[in-house]
Amino acid sequence: MTARHWLPALGAAALIATAATADDPKGASGDPLPQGAKVRLGSTRMRVPTGWYSFALAADGRSLVTLSERGKVIAIDVTTGAVNGGPVPFVRPVRMELSADGTRGVTTGYGGPVVYDLATGTVKAKIDFVVPFGESSGLLSADGKVLALGGGKGANQKVRALVWDVEKNEKRAEVEVLQNQAANAVISGDGTVLATWGNHFKEFKPGAEPKPEEDHSRVAQFWDAASGAERGRYRVSGYAVSTVALAPDGKTAVVGSGDGGVYLVDTTNGALLRRLFGRSDQGNRVAFSKDGKRVAVGGADGTVQIYDPATGARVSRTGCPVGPLPYGGVRELKFTGAGTVTAWAVVNAAAVVWEVPSGRLLSPTGGHTGAVDSVAFTADGKTVLTAGNGAVLRWDPATGKQTGAVRLRAPGRAGDADALGARFGPGALTIRTGGSAPAVYETESGDQLFALRGPGDYNSESILCTDGRTLLVATRPGGPAPKAEPAAMRVPVWDTTTGIKLAELEPRFGTLVAAGTSPDRKTVVTLVGVRVGDTFKTDHFVTGWDLATGKNLGEVPVAPAPGQHVLVPAPDNTAALVATESGKLAVVDFVAGKVVREIDTERQVPTAVSPFSPDGKWFAVGSGSSGFGPKPAVRVYDWKSGKVVRTFRGHDTGIQSLAFSPDGKALASGSLDTTVLLWDISEK
């Protein structure tokens, strides 16, 4: 059964359907729990791993809206994350904009601009016109009856902009802009004035000084939307025009330069009325209120400033409630009241929506905002540690609640270190591979324990095994390349808890791709890529080593899956699991010198393989992608038989990390959907 709801943000006529709510068990975040899951860590609400490019903020600021391939409205409630109207499309390489009255929407992409009636999903206009992938390549007037389009560079054509009459589905005006690469365009609310700006490229002769007056990237032009006659132009002093907004009557424009310069301009002649002074790096987004009496200016860090355009006075300054934005800045600003603005931004896979000037966060928050790259249980099983997109978080596995975050502190650095490429091991250690040098941190305190190499040592490859203590360092000789590469390289193996060198390995000369230790730490297994002569081809070899003596136990040539360097040593100290280019898991017996069997992964390329369960009987494989192909799955295999003993499905996108609990009764899976699911694998 379906229920129909009014969506005020899209106008009184816009009806959308939403699926009835099932009585599914809920996690701590309120997200439904799939069958077999004990708890979910984090939330999938307000997360779109494939990107928010095709979403726009509705007129009342309550929903983020996109369209399906058939023009059906799909809206995400910004306060609850509930999706109305159907599943979110996988990837639509289009830009979405809404008219101010919420009756129409325009998409711009490879198929050309299309205007939809949001109440019925019918196409009102489809224009054969090349548009760039810009933030303002197509914008509608307030009533959706007039469309402004910025053009891209076509064959033997100069860059143009169009004014399109949506009601008649015909061109109203066409202008040739100054820029020679691409143009952005906006239309005033009443549809009378067009503004354009864009990208310009000019070659300079060697030694010639660039002339700012010839750089058309710095120019905004204003046009009569009916006749196409130019009314005026304004040149910013910054690097380039970043954005333009027109007052509802089109008589005034706010021009941002993205470097902090924001200018109020008379569109009738291009004259500067005043500069709006404020913070640096402001002006990547600007907007007028519906009555034209207020101007909102967004900055790169998420700060939003509101000005009185009549006096130039700053009325308010509001920071983003989740802290400074990492990149991209404010995505969109929309006045929802006389002096109230709704702003939104994208942080990794999550959308953050807040109110200005109150600073009130509207959207759900907490948990990871991007893929969970690593997951682990502490030794007592009472805490789960997760890492992804620079954050390390702690969770209670019994309740699913986040209990804290780990602030990684690097010596000589004022701010926190980023947990990029983190990996956990027993003893609650994490390896950081982002920034100046890889290092290991204590996850309880966040203090750095030791660095894996110096900041300037770029000739070494360091791999910390999943036991959290065994470190392999492969060092390439510096200086000019030798005429003939040596047959082998030296790889010392260190115990990072004692500082003792355990062994020195001599694998083939090449790239140390992956390494791991057996559960009892008697054996270390390496995967090395060796370039074939002067070609671009690379051969790979799996080699087993006695960790006590460094003795070579044998090697096997393999063809690993491209980009999936999965290597998991087995408990028997004679074999390892390797993900192959055929999409299967190969059991490589390095002592026997051959692949002894292949494990069928049901034609799904493994994206993650866990270490073995504490009793050595099972291992888990994660698979799946985002949108295309089979739904992501977690499969638990019996090591002896190679048969599947458990299958779980519940993540929306591919599995990135897997870990067994210390008692072997639970399995954690981290996903691109930003959450971790704890699965019940106890014997039944």
From TrEMBL:
<keyword id="KW-0732">Signal</keyword>
<dbReference type="Pfam" id="PF00400">
    <property type="entry name" value="WD40"/>
</dbReference>
<feature type="repeat" description="WD">
    <location>
        <begin position="648"/>
        <end position="684"/>
    </location>
</feature>
<protein>
    <recommendedName>
        <fullName>Pyrrolo-quinoline quinone repeat domain-containing protein</fullName>
    </recommendedName>
</protein>
<feature type="domain" description="Pyrrolo-quinoline quinone repeat">
    <location>
        <begin position="223"/>
        <end position="315"/>
    </location>
</feature>
<feature type="signal peptide">
    <location>
        <begin position="1"/>
        <end position="22"/>
    </location>
</feature>
<keyword id="KW-0677">Repeat</keyword>
<keyword id="KW-0853">WD repeat</keyword>
<dbReference type="InterPro" id="IPR036322">
    <property type="entry name" value="WD40_repeat_dom_sf"/>
</dbReference>
<dbReference type="InterPro" id="IPR019775">
    <property type="entry name" value="WD40_repeat_CS"/>
</dbReference>
<dbReference type="InterPro" id="IPR015943">
    <property type="entry name" value="WD40/YVTN_repeat-like_dom_sf"/>
</dbReference>
<dbReference type="InterPro" id="IPR002372">
    <property type="entry name" value="PQQ_rpt_dom"/>
</dbReference>
<dbReference type="InterPro" id="IPR001680">
    <property type="entry name" value="WD40_rpt"/>
</dbReference>
<feature type="repeat" description="WD">
    <location>
        <begin position="276"/>
        <end position="317"/>
    </location>
</feature>
<dbReference type="Pfam" id="PF13360">
    <property type="entry name" value="PQQ_2"/>
</dbReference>
<dbReference type="InterPro" id="IPR011047">
    <property type="entry name" value="Quinoprotein_ADH-like_sf"/>
</dbReference>
